[in-house]
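User: Second chain of the day. Same drill as before.
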Amino acid sequence: MTLQESYKAMGADYDEVLGRLRSERLVQKFVLKFLDDPSYELLLTSMAAGNWEDAFRASHTMKGVCQNLGFTRLGKSSSELTEALRAGDTATAASLLDQVKADYEQTAGAIRASQSGPEHEHHPFVRVPSGK
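Assistant: Same format as last time:
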């Protein structure tokens, strides 16, 4: 799966982010960094612990990263969660978390899929990013 195909699979806007970053290499670099961002895990642990302040910060960070990378679907659900937490509506926030989880898993899965396949096999003259 190509990076552009992975964007389509995750309900994201590849053309918009390519227009902003102007290089597929840069898009790929930042997309791969997304997988290492600790915000999602912080969101999950904070929500489970009832630490609404940290949950808000994590969801707000995710929302911003998603907007910058054109991850439309995950950005929308993260934004809704952020606004519920901002308003102190923890019951709504808890109910929105399942959608964020589903959207995150779809996004992360599509990114991982873009890193496998014949177009990413090792070639002696091409350096393939390791994913970190």
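The chain is about 75% helix and 0% strand.

User: Great, on to the next one.
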